[in-house]
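call fold(seq) -> tokens
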Amino acid sequence: MKIPLKLINNPEKLNLELWYWNPWDAPWGDIEVDIMNWSTPSPMSSISISTSQSKILIGDTITISGFIYPAHTNATVTLSYKMPNGTILVRNVTSTALGGFEDTFIPEMAGSWTVRASWNGDLDHEGSTSSEVPFLVLRAKSSVMLAVSKEVIRRGDPITLSGSINPPVAGAMVTLTFEKPDGSTFNKTIFTYPNGSFIYKLIPQNVGRWSLYASWQGNENYEGSFSPSLSFIVKPKPAEFVVTDLSITPTEAEVKQPIIISVKVTNVGEQAGLYNVNLKLNGVLVGSKKVSLKEKESTVVMFQVITDNVGTFDVEVNGLKGVFMVKHTQIPWSSYAIITAVAVAAALVIITIFMKKWRASYRSGRSSV
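ret:
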């Protein structure tokens, strides 16, 4: 039993009355104790450490090991790690029977670290502190993956670019570098999602082969990297036709009177092509014409309709709709006057001839009497 006491005049021995209890002895007694001279310093101790590696990659483990001399069992050893940003990280371990100890952990910051060990000592030995031991945590390698949604698209169509940084880094700035078919370049900056992925949509306007790659500059823990270069092809828009300007002349006609129906056809695409223009009357196909147009070229397509049928006709030409009417032929009032005059004249002629014949017959009869 060791009992530290502060005594006056430092006597060499003293009698100490202690109270104790067990089933076989009285609950008190006299015991002789030796006096320790507290003016004499405790023996010195020392502590030393070493690292398992002088350089590691972030994410790897490092082991700090050491000894207390003279050996002390179950002593608490404090390891003080100084991080690259100046923060002190404290970790405690317990010594083994031979005074050894070790600590294994994973540094979470790249840069220069130092570590030192200390213990507070005990009644027999003073505490001690080791020297600082440096080690370096290197930035880990990273990679960038990139993919395109399509290898061939039409001009004006969207293309989706997607990729990721590995190991995943959230909020990292990624630069997409594009090279147009004419050799000029431009950059787009985007940021990764929490899982390290990124996505970007582009609508290319230049026809030809495009090239692109993704890159990031890295951060305090990871080195930057570049993705492999990719390419895609932008083709011109195919021929695309628009029908406009439906015209019906006249909109009211007589039987067998020609009716002209026309439309304007424009190729708004970027390639030449053929197009069928269809005329329907009352839902029935009555005419069709095929036109060939270069890119951005226009033409007027005309149909002539002559019918004996009277009524209203619904017109449809490739989605454009109109209407015209056909009526019976009407004789003008002047024509009626002429016909009447002719009829009257004819009647007068007939009457005149009849009268002449009658008179001649009458005279002939009287002469014979």
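DSSP finds one helix and 28 strands in the chain.
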